[in-house]
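Rotation project, supervised by the postdoc (A.L.). Task for the rotation student: set up a whole-complex structure prediction and record inputs and outputs verbatim in this book. Inputs entered:
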Amino acid sequence: MTLTLSHKDVENLTLTFTTEFAASVDRVWQVWEDPRQLERWWGPPTVPATFTKLEFSPEGDARYFMTMPDGSRAYGWWRILAVHAPHRLEFEDGFSDDSGEPVDSTDFATCAVTLETVENGTRMTLVNTFKSAEQLDEMMKMGMEEGMAEALGQIDAILAESSVSR
Amino acid sequence: MLTYNQMVVYELSDTAVDRIFQALADSTRRDIIERTLRHEQSVSDLAKHYEMSFAAVQKHVAVLERAMLVTKERRGREQIVHGNSEALRRAKELLDAYEQIWHERAIRIGEILSEPEKDKNK
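Outputs recorded:
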C-alpha cells in the first residue's frame, strides 16, 4: 500500500512529497530511468505521456508530450541537473511549443527526487519548487485536467470490469 | 468529453494568483493577515504593532487589498481592515491540486512495481 506524506510551503512555492514503495531502490529507480516505464505513470491512463527523448545524465535533455483525450498534444521538456543512480535525480520541467522545443527555457519548475532504502522498501521524496505563482497556476490547471481525466479513466475501468464480471 | 475542457476554467486569473503570492512574500503583510483574520482592525491600530510609518503600513494594506487577501471599509475617520480567509484558502488550493497529481502518480508507480519482473523488456 502506498503511504504518502506531503508538506506545502505557500510562501516559498514548494511542495515536498514523500511516499514509500515495497520495492528495492534499484527497482524504483527504473520507473524513472526507463522511458517506457516512466510514460506509464507520468500521465494518467486517459492523458498518456510519450517520451521521445530521455538522456539520463547530467545536462541531459528530455522531450515528451501528453496526449489529451481529444487527440491534441501538450508538449514538455526536462533538463537533467543531477543524476546519482539509484538515489538522486534533479531536473527542470517546463512547457514546450508544438515543435516540442521549450517555449521559454528560463521558465521551469524544479523537481528533486531522492530514493532511500527503508525497512519495508524504498522511500521516495520529491521536492517541487515553482518559480512563480503564475507557473504553479498553469501546472494546477494541467493538474485539474489530469485529475478529471483520471476520474473518467477510473469510471471506464470500473465499467469494463463489471461487464467482464471478474 | 465536453465537461473535460470546462474543468480547466478556474476562478482566479494568473494575475490574481500572482498578486496573492507576491502579497504573501512579505513577513509584515503575513502578520497583518494573521491579525486581521482574528479581529477586524483599523489601519492606525495595526500601525502600532510595527516599527514603520503609518503610510508604510497603509501601503502594505493596499498590496493585500489588491490581492484580495484583506478588505477595507471606511468607518467614520477610521479605515477598518478584515482578513479574507477565502483568498488564502484558494492559494493553498493551488498547492493541493499539484499534490494530488503526485499522489496519483505514486499510485501508478506502485502498480508498476507490484507487477512481476518479466514486464521490463529493456
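Student's summary: Chain A has a mean pLDDT of 79.
Supervisor addendum: The CA atoms of residues 46 and 148 of chain A lie 9 Å apart.
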